[in-house]
Amino acid sequence: MSYNPFAVAQTQIDKAAKALGLDESTQQLLRVPQREYVFTLPVRLDNGKVKIFQAFRVQYNTARGPAKGGIRWHPDETIDTVRALAAWMTWKTSVVDIPLGGGKGGVICDPKTMSEGEKERLARAYVRAVSREIGITKDVPAPDVYTTGQIMAWMMDEYETIMQEHHPGVITGKPLALGGSLGRGDATARGGIYTVREAANAYGIALKGEAMAVQGFGNAGQFAALLGEKLLGLKLVAACDSQIGIYNKNGISAKEIVDYKLSKGTLKGFKGGKEIASNEVLEVKCTVLFPAALENSINEKNAQRVDCKISCELANGPTTPEGDVILDKKSVVVIPDYLANAGGVTVSYFEQCQNAQNYYWTETQVHERLDQKMTAAFKAVHETSVKKKINLRDAAYLVSIARVAEAVKLRGWV
Ligand code: NAD
């Protein structure tokens, strides 16, 4: 049977519901989306033909606030992927305790083959289809796989054209010139770095001068290397992209390797260390490992060889359940993905707050408030983990699902 992410999401809910002793109606409510929209979007291509795209928006749960979640443009998009990601967004906004629910959107398309004009027409068509269902009090989309700040700008403009009013907060991840927030660029990695600092304190692990390795050298991975060095005093010893890894036990300058990757588009040929296979980076001896590439990277085949004290999951789903059991036995402190990478959605929420006030914060204010949110989130999860004698991943589910369960109960939905 093929992998169904929504079935996985439902299994996780069932496990947490059992551990929390939730009643059956609450469990049944939390294991299905509250609302979902499926629509067809006719879009004129540059060659004059009209192509029909299938699109989705799922509002998984809005008990704690308006739905929040990105819009993915991907050829393999399915309603079940969108449902699963919308469920995970519900737990992510809950674990960092921001007053939002969870949602996700998607369009089945291949953006790599589309012109800018076709992308703009698709973006505007999507918003025309969902304009009555989104908004600052209902559902606030954001960028995700293959959707960009420019696409958010077109979507905001289409929404404002329909409403005949300014509504910058209808969507986040906008360019700065249109109401984006300072500090959004590195927010995911920065949030992860704050949780590493807290984990090191909680588990008595020294960080200064210790080694870090970064798997995946895109937005999340590059900022993890830069901020790990700057804020925690970690020494980068290994990094990789999809093609190649670089290793130097004496340390690699984070700035040099990031500049190299940005200018060449690859780590191939970087002289600051020896070349190793990409997947070997996961097995390098280090204090902190940042899986920041793809899902299913640490699994039953390689988890035994993972040699870190803390694994800070910046990617979504980098460790399989089988991999998790092995890391657990090896006493690796795994900071689970939807806590570790929640900095991005937290600063998206800050963007909404600033749009609502029509008053913009300094970068320092964004960093301080992000630190407060991430620190409080880590502490709540760690406390539950100690109290219940479970790992941080299971504890994060308990904390977040319990908060959503409380909200649906207080509203009288169950
Ligand atoms: P990105 O596309 O900028 O970078 C991904 C990097 O991973 C690239 O350097 C790519 O070469 C590398 N990669 C791909 N396959 C690999 C492989 N098999 N081995 C090693 N490296 C490989 O993406 P990103 O925005 O940095 O996101 C990375 C992960 O973090 C994703 O799982 C994403 O869902 C998650 N995430 C990102 C954000 C964000 O704000 N950027 C927020 C939450 C979660």
Features:
414 residues, alpha/beta, Rossmann fold, 2 domains, seven-stranded mixed β-sheet, five-stranded mixed β-sheet, 13 helices, 12 strands, globular, binds nicotinamide-adenine-dinucleotide
Explained architecture:
The protein has 414 residues and is an alpha/beta fold. The chain folds into 2 domains: 36-172, Rossmann fold, CATH 3.40.50.10860; 181-414, NAD(P)-binding Rossmann-like Domain (Rossmann fold), CATH 3.40.50.720. It has 13 helices and 12 strands. It has a 7-stranded mixed sheet, sandwiched between helices. Strand 11, helix 9 (321-329) and strand 12 form a beta-alpha-beta unit. Helix 1 (5-20) runs parallel beside helix 3 (79-95) and helix 6 (187-203) crosses helix 7 (219-232). The protein is globular and about 60 Å long. The protein starts with a helix and ends with a helix. The structure holds nicotinamide-adenine-dinucleotide. Nicotinamide-adenine-dinucleotide binds next to helix 7.
Biggest sheet, spatial arrangement of strands: 9-8-7-6-10-11-12
Determine the oligomeric state from the structure. single chain
- What is the fold-level CATH name, i.e. the topology of the largest domain? Rossmann fold
* Outline: globular
What is the beta-strand fraction? Answer: 15-25%
Q: Whole-number average pLDDT?
A: 96
